[in-house]
Amino acid sequence: MNKIIIGEQIVKSFGEGKERHKVLDRVSVEINEGEFVAVMGPSGSGKTTLMFALSGMDRIDSGKVAFDGVKLSDLGEKELSDIRRTKMGFVFQQPTMLKNLNLLDNIILPTVRDNRKNTTAISEKARKLMKRVGIGDFEKRDITQVSGGQLQRAGICRALMNEPKILFGDEPTGALNSKSADEIMNILSEINEDDGTAIMLVTHDAKVAARAERILFMKDGIIVNETKTSKFARKNLENRVEKINLKMRELGI
Amino acid sequence: MYNRIIRNDMLKSKFITVITMIFVAAAAMLVSLAAILVVNLSGALDNLMTQAKTPHFMQMHSGEIDRERLVDFAEENRNVDEFQVVEFLNMDGAQITLGNNSLAHSVQDHGLSVQNKKFDYLLDLNGRIINVSDGEVYVPVTYMKDNTTKVGDVAVISGKEFIVAGFLRDSTMNSSLSSSKRFLVSNNDYAELLGHGEIEYLIEFRLKDYSLIGEFETMYASVGMEANGPTVTYALFKTMNAISDGMLIAVILLVSGLVVVIALMSIRFTLLAKIEDDYREIGVMKAIGLRLSDIKKIYLAKYALIAAIGSILGFILSIIFKGVLLENIRLFMGESENSSYGLLFGVLGILLVFLVIMTYVSSVLKRFRKISVVEAIRFGTSQEKRAHVNRLTLSRRKLLSTNVFLGVKDVLARKKLYVTSLVVLVISVFIIIVPQNLSNTISSKSFIQYMGIGHYDLHIQSNNPDQTDQIVNVIDSDHDVSKYVVMTTKTFKVKMNNESEENIKIELGDHSIFPIAYSEGRAPASEDELALSDINASEMGKKVGDMITLEIGGDEEDFTVTGIYSDVTNGGKTAKGVFHDNSTNSIWTIISVELSDKSLVSGKASMYADEFDFAKTSDIDEYVSQTFGSTISSIKTASYVSIAIALVITILVTLLFMKMLVAKDRYSIAVMKALGFTNMDIRVQYVSRSVFVLIIGVIVGTLLANTVGEMLARSIISSFGASTFNFTVDPLSAYLFSPLMMISAVLIATIIGTSSVEKIKISENIKE
Which 3-state string (H, E, C) describes B326-391? Predict the structure, then answer.
């Protein structure tokens, strides 16, 4: 299996002088093409920082991150932006939509930056995606005119527009009620299974993590444990959630 | 506690605090300068005219004079306080050499005078009445200013050598707008040179009650006293002396008013942003029961401090710069007795600026009342209202690139936010274009048409009617002359409404050859038509279409007023007609000439000057530059200063605006970056916003400059005689270079102001 991301000995610190502390302490991680990975851990364990480091949104202090065979630390700001825009997709806890644009425009935004002339085709593709995630009727709505769950679906559409190799999610269901959260997770699982898009999710919710085939447990800036599950085992979600909770208690997370 | 809050706050936003302070300082400086200049100008002018005892009424006269009759008139008129007849020995400019410079090409009438005994004194640069010795000459101060000569130079007048002993201030002829200049020599020297020039008389009166000047003028004319030349009154002397500096003051006042508005705008802007920043704190303070007035106090105290420091700085700057601006007033009029009042008024002006700022801050702070505690604590920001411009969607946009589209869309969606910056840009464009157009208008050749002078190349003035034919013969046979016209000026009696009579000078000839601009109506075309100058029309109470009665050769004849025009020549009191008259002698004849090849003008001017040494030949460009030169240069300086001020304002405000916008938009910038937009993409979006607002600003500003600005300029220019005119716009400069300068300024400021975009980290701003 080809590795889409290879992270080796990643170190990242925040703060100045005496207050400086390591948030990632020599973390190594690999993600395969089409793999669904979840990262769990308590607040401050470094899981979001790890996601930012692997996606090139933040520079690391030392170590190495390679994406699709390219070492990210060798790239400039412009090349990093290009990679994020064309090969990665992002879904955040808050919907991160631009207030000036309607739902459809928000979704096509990163794509039309490069393909000015194909706006019609791009819009058509966006409409199909919107239909697929169940917000087909809302394309002209302002972002203040739809619910949080609908916004999050729009966020997923935006992330998928450029057919990314990997989709990063930072607590994508964190701000949603459980019904909406389940629906979002169904969509993400489907994308992973049907389209073969790799997913890396940061979450503290065992129910979300239960969808992943591999779970990394983080604490104090290091990966303390890792579990892998077969596709079959993931069908029995409740059982899996229980196992994850048990593991977390075991690890003192 | 307040002190600590304010100090921390200012340290945190050093840049913004400094810029706000600069604006306040600039506004305060300009207001203070304007006040100081006004007080000094009026003080110095009064001082000069008091020390020199400027005549209340002066009739210039060439030709015979009946002194006894004049003395009788003066004695009989109870309002006359003092009376004198002053001689002005008219010398051709070619007869005068100062140091190494000949005055041959000067358009001024130069003449020798002796010191007067009763009034109309010629003063030295210390304001003292000059006592001149034999062999010495005192030269008009204007020749010191343009470096024609200096003290100790040898001056040669009609072959006789003099030493330039000093410079003189002449309260009646100081101004470059006055076409005559007096040189002061001793009685003996004057007597010696008497045969070398033509004597012109200045019949001068000081009145006991100047308010009755109108009555006196009527009386003077109605008894048929000598009147072969212009008549000038005290008020006109005052206006002519004040014009150049007055215009400078007007421009400074205009600019200072606008800078005050800009200072207020930037305060509004920074204050609103600050309220936005502190939204949650204000909500919390409100929630825990602090009174609104307490919260307001913190902000008021901060702006009071900024405004106070800015005002003091502005005052100090105005003290530093006032010297440069007062130089001209000091040279031509001397010190003002009340110059300390100048400082007082400067301080008052600054206090006014301070008060205006504080009132304004206080009114902006009324917004506190609208802050909802719940909204503030829940969201931490005011829930900004955005206009939803639904028609403009990314999915349907055709022309613009994504980044430009996003920039434009943002401006349209958050109009309120951009209004402040738009207003500032509009004002900046206004400040750049109006003085520039004004300066262009005054220096353009066609401007003199608004001042009663036609559009020709040369004019030859002869005071001797017998020699006119000789000039006409030469001109008529000159192949380089494309057209010419002969205008003869004669004095007639005009019947006033109250049945009294006054003198009126009428220029007779064909007025269609070199037309002037009429503020109302048209030029006279038939024998029974007349056009009146503005001043004459308003003094006589005549409008276009009214009848006017003249006494010609003993008969009364009626004329219709066909037009009214502005005139700066001959004291502004002239008339134009086309009728023929043999009943009276002409005062002077002017032959206006247009040449087929403009490059020949200066050559022809000197050729005719040599050929007609009995007449005065002037090149019109030269005439304009010498007559209005100092005014034009004042305005030109003001227009350059305005451009500089406007550009600095534009850069500072745009910088301020961009910095605050980037700070406000940190979150959306982080989102964009996360989505793969590069720093360059984002900066292009900001540049698009700036340029979009700028384009609107330039259009609105230019429109306003050409409408409201023209009106303002008209009111300034009407102060020296030209009541109607249209801007002469240099399209290249007004519509290309000025916008280009603005665009460069805005671009530079936007690029610098958005540099912090690069420092915005996704990880720090997209917090979960």
Answer: HHHHHHHHCCCCCHHHHHHHHHHHHHHHHHHHHHHHHHHHHHHHHCCHHHHHHHCCCCCCCCCCCC
Q: What are phi and psi of B729, to 5 degrees?
A: -100, 130
How far is Cα A244 from Cα A170, in angstroms, rounded to an integer? 19
φ and ψ at B689, to 5 degrees? Answer: -60, -50
Q: Which two tokens stand for residue B255?
A: 């600019």
Q: What's phi and psi for B767, nearest 5 deg?
A: -95, 145
Domain boundary among B590, B614, B638: B614
Residue of chain B minimizing CA distance to A125: B395
d(CA B654, CA B664): 15
- Whether the ipTM is more than 0.85: the answer is no
Buried b or exposed e, range A178-206, using 16+ CB within 10 angstroms: eebbebbbebbeebbeeeebbbbbbbbbb
Q: Is residue A198 part of a domain?
A: yes
What does the block give as tokens for B166? 């000093």
Interface with B, mutate which of A48, A58, A78, A101 (most B CBs under 10 A): A101
DSSP letter string, B23-35: HHHHHHHHHHHHH
3-state secondary structure of A118: coil
- Residue A48 touches chain B, beta carbons under 8 Å: yes
What's the gap between Cα B28 and its chain centre? 21
Single out the residue of B294, B264, B273 nearest to residue B363, CA to CA.
B264
Q: Are residues B315 and B426 in the same domain?
A: no
Chain B residues interacting with chain A (CB cutoff of 8 angstroms): 384, 386, 388, 390, 393-397, 401-403, 406, 409-410, 413-414, 668, 671-681, 758, 761-763, 766, 768
Give the mean pLDDT per block of 10 residues along chain B (768 residues). 73 81 89 89 90 93 89 92 93 86 81 94 93 95 89 93 95 82 95 89 94 88 83 86 79 82 83 76 75 79 91 93 84 80 89 92 82 66 61 77 90 87 90 86 74 82 81 90 91 79 87 87 92 85 90 88 82 85 84 90 86 83 74 80 87 87 85 90 94 94 90 71 69 87 94 90 73
For the stretch A88-121, pLDDT in tens is 999 988 778 888 888 999 999 888 887 666 888 8
Same domain, B523 and B586: yes
Q: A22 pairs with which residues across the strands?
A: A13
Residue with tokens 């000439």: B593
Q: What are phi and psi of B363, to 5 degrees?
A: -70, -35
Q: Are residues B400 and B306 in the same domain?
A: no
Which residue range(s) make up the domain with B527? 464-614
Q: Tell me the CATH number at A63.
A: 3.40.50.300
Task: Evaluate whether residue B265 is within a structural domain.
Answer: yes
Q: B385: distance to nearest CA of chain A, Å?
A: 10
Q: Which long-range contacts (CB under 8 A, 24 or more apart) does B606-613 make?
A: B606/B104, B606/B105, B608/B458, B608/B460, B608/B474, B609/B94, B609/B104, B611/B474, B612/B460, B612/B462, B612/B467, B612/B470, B612/B471, B612/B474, B613/B92, B613/B94
Q: Show residues of chain A in contact with B672, CB under 8 Å.
A: 98
Number of domains forming the structure of chain A: 1
Confirm or reject contact between A78 and chain B (CB < 8 A): yes
B768 CB neighbours in chain A (<8 A) are: 48, 92-94, 170-171, 174
CA pair distance B221, B503, nearest whole angstrom: 5
User: Is B548 among the domain residues?
Assistant: yes
Residue A42, CB half-sphere, CA atoms under 13 Å: how many? 8
Do the Cβ atoms of B219 and B77 come closer than 8 Å?
Answer: yes
B482/B428 same-domain check: no
- For position B615, what pLDDT does the model report? 82
Whether B363 and B402 map to the same domain: the answer is no
Give contacts of B681 with chain A, Cβ < 8 Å.
81, 113
Q: How far is CA B648 from CA B501, B645, B749, in A?
A: 58, 5, 10
